[in-house]
Amino acid sequence: xxxxxxxxxxxxxxxxxxxxxxxxxxxxxxxxxxxxxxxxxxxxxxxxxxxxxxxxxxxxxxxxxxxxxxxxxxxxxxxxxxxxxxxxxxxxxxxxxxxxxxxxxxxxxxxxxxxxxxxxxxxxxxxxxxxxxxxxxxxxxxxxxxxxxxxxxxxxxxxxxxxxxxxxxxxxxxxxxxxxxxxxxxxxxxxxxxxxxxxxxxxxxxxxxxxxxxxxxxxxxxxxxxxxxxxxxxxxxxxxxxxxxxxxxxxxxxxxxxxxxxxxxxxxxxxxxxxxxxxxxxxxxxxxxxxxxxxxxxxxxxxxxxxxxxxx
Length: 312
Known about the structure:
The structure is a single chain. The protein is α/β, with parallel strands linked by helices. It has two domains: 240 residues, von Willebrand factor, type A domain (Rossmann fold, 3-Layer(aba) Sandwich); 47 residues, no CATH class. The protein is 37% helix and 24% strand. It has a six-stranded mixed sheet, with helices on both faces. The relative contact order is 0.16.
């Protein structure tokens, strides 16, 4: 059982307890070093039957199927899917735009939007904790213009505490170089992993095509939590406003009423291109508004994977 001596704002015990009943599963076979709950591309011992193959000298005689022999007069061996552990690689966007967080009018809403970086911490921290509890390796990479900090996936409570330290110390600043970071991770993460990207994706969607394709080519399972502040989608500003580029691009003073239509058209085109990219690449994509309770977002994510794989 993992215990962290230091309290973490992004870890809520009640949420962790409620989500602990649903496993974090990979959609692709994983290659690990110990037995676990995830499918492996190799054959081994498990309760999940995979296939028959012809007997060859040296095979374990206990795996012979005598019923198949009675029907065919040939020796066949039962093979089962091996179970292994998972490598969870968290990719946290720490570019300047992740610092944004609006406040609803009146400030008395039940679920106030969090700053995107704080919401991302909760997503990453909770997934990291759940993976650690089921014996999986957890690592993290913070991405801005490049890789800011990185810890490779490892299986130990001490290492998980280091991952939480990185989450706690992450500060959003600088420009976005997420695509280059994903290419670098695809090359440096040698064994198959579940790569979970938490970002506002403030980049040209066309740049993501190659990055996602590179990760898929390396046989990684890719999931993306795409964060939006509600104000970014509603654009409900009512009076002239100074819009500041948090990634260093300067500021614009504009009347929202005059630019709202153009903004919404540009947003719709961006989301449509992203939708096409998701369909083409087959990644696990979650669009998230930061005023939605993150527990609901993660429950939907975990249950969707469990249903796709089938609970054992």
